[in-house]
Amino acid sequence: MMKNQKPYVVLGGLLASVAMSSPQAVLACGPAKVIGVYFDRDSATQMSRLADWMADLRAKYPNHESIDISASAEPGEHSPQSLTMERARNVARVLREDLRFDGAKIYLPAQGYVKKPASAYLRQLEKSQGVRAVQLEFLPACPHECSCGSSPTPSEPKAPAQ
């Protein structure tokens, strides 16, 4: 039993050493702001906090690089895969039409996620919110609170929301 555990101890020690030797990664600034918009079961409409949150961000950051959208549904919902994309498109539409954000900077996912809550804690949240959500990541343009030389760049191009 001790032989099987030894590689994990060595690997854990190695990972800890690497993490401690690169303080820049730990102290790096990330300017992105994230919010979750939660939906009722089998619903694709819900914008209660979104308008206020986006208005605050627009006031603080008049320019932005992008708004990336991801969406999820639960396996038991009606047509969960199409529901995820409907939720994402509805949020993108509200951003464009109601809140007047530039549609060319709003990025929809290629597909949504259908997933079960990962833990007992999340199963409790499922009754009110769960994984029925759209997540928005707002990336402000320079200037912002981070050094503009360290702004993350998208790893792969995404298509703007239609």
In short:
With 162 residues, this protein is α/β, with parallel strands linked by helices. 38% of the residues lie in helices and 17% in strands.
Structural write-up:
By secondary structure, the protein is α/β, with parallel strands linked by helices. It has a single domain, classed as 60s Ribosomal Protein L30, Chain: A (2-Layer Sandwich). 38% of the residues lie in helices and 17% in strands. The protein is built from five helices and five strands, in the order H-H-E-H-E-H-E-E-H-E. Strands 1, 2, 3, 4 and 5 form a five-stranded mixed beta sheet that branches. Strand 2, helix 4 and strand 3 form a beta-alpha-beta unit. It is globular and about 45 Å long. The N terminus is likely disordered.
Descriptive tags:
60s Ribosomal Protein L30, Chain: A; single chain; 162 residues; 5-stranded mixed sheet; globular; alpha/beta; disordered N terminus
Integer average pLDDT? 72
Low-confidence stretches: 1-26, 150-157
CATH level 1 class label: Alpha Beta
Q: Can you tell me the overall shape?
A: globular
State the helix count.
5
How far apart lie the N and C ends? 57 Å
Tell me the domain tally: 1
Q: What is the CATH superfamily label?
A: OmpA-like domain
Structural class, from helix and strand content?
alpha/beta
Binned, the helix content reads: 25-40%
One letter per element, helices H and strands E, the order comes to HHEHEHEEHE
CATH topology: 60s Ribosomal Protein L30, Chain: A
> In percent, how much strand structure appears in the residues?
15-25%
Radius of gyration: 19 Å
CATH-level-2 architecture: 2-Layer Sandwich
Largest sheet: 5 strands, mixed
The tally of beta strands, per DSSP, is 5
